[in-house]
Amino acid sequence: MPNMKVKTILVSQPEPKVENSPYFDLQNKHKVKVDFRPFIHVEGVPAKEVRAQKIDLNNYTAIILTSKNSVDHFFRVAEEMRYKVPEDLRYFCQSEAIAYYLQKYVVYRKRKIYVGQKDFADMSSLFKKYKDEKFLLPASDQLNADIPQTLNNLKLDWTPGIFYKTVMSDLSDLKDVYYDVLAFFSPTGIKSLFKNFPEFKQNNTRIAVFGSTTQKEALDHGLRVDIMAPTPEAPSMTMALEKYVAEVNKAK
Predict the structure, then answer these.
(1) Taking the domains of the chain in order of start, what are their residue ranges?
(2) Over the stretch 156-184, which tens digit does the pLDDT of each residue have?
(3) Fold of the CATH domain 8-39+169-249
């Protein structure tokens, strides 16, 4: 593993909108340059294609929301289908952040909103209470395997719908740009790297990955993974980067 100092990091996600992001702390504390560039982006599936999946929004009494994207694209499709969202529709949100985001579209206190802890499986007790609902899961074309598994184990009446797709971004302008560390958050991000740069050679570039599926994709592509998150010591990507940079950048 190269033990060279880190001066530049490319994070394959959009730049954080908050001023107090830990990425900016990392940048200031260790005097490293952190750039942000999404390697993948989300594109909405038109209502016509959602209909072709035999989905009629009138048939459902509950919506399962696993991300902010699923919130945005459910309401976008509803509008495209001229579907008036009923006030008694139940919303099952995987986390508090998603439930909070829902306020962009609905008056919170007047709606039936149920919130999980963090992981999808944590919502099982909520689903059990409302097992007679007809659930719709508006999601992307890349659904985590634990989601259908959890819903099927509970024997719920549920329908998955592809409301948006994860697409690889065009990164051709980065052709001659070199970074000490590349940070990835999904298997598709790794695929995007090799789609854009089929000749990519890792050499001294450190690869940071979040999650075991991203790690597997990196290894399958012959990459050496130098920085791994989450771990007990580094539950987030920023903490893993901070730990690594502090180690290799200390005065030799």
Answers:
(1) 8-39+169-249, 43-166
(2) 999 999 999 989 999 988 888 899 999 99
(3) Rossmann fold (3.40.50)
41/188 Cα distance (integer angstroms)? 10
Q: Take residue 248 and report the two structure tokens written for it.
A: 């290799």
Domain 43-166 has CATH 3.40.50.10090: yes
| Residues 166 and 143: beta-carbon distance below 8 Å | no
In which element (H, E) is residue 96 found?
A: helix 96-101
Give the CA distances from residue 195 to residues 116, 173, 188, 208, in Å, rounded to whole numbers and listed in that order: 36, 14, 10, 19
What DSSP letter does each residue of 173-239 carry, written as one string?
A: GGTT---SEEEE-SHHHHHHHHHH-TT---TT-EEEEESHHHHHHHHHTTPPEEEEES-SS--SHHH
Q: Do domains 8-39+169-249 and 43-166 have the same CATH topology?
A: yes
Burial of 247 (0-12, 13-18, 19+ CB in 10 A): exposed
Q: Kindly report the pTM of this predicted structure.
A: 0.76
Residue-wise pLDDT for 203-238, tens only, equals 999 999 999 999 999 999 999 999 999 999 999 999
| Tokens 């992001």 found at | 21
- Encoded amino acid at 54, one letter: K
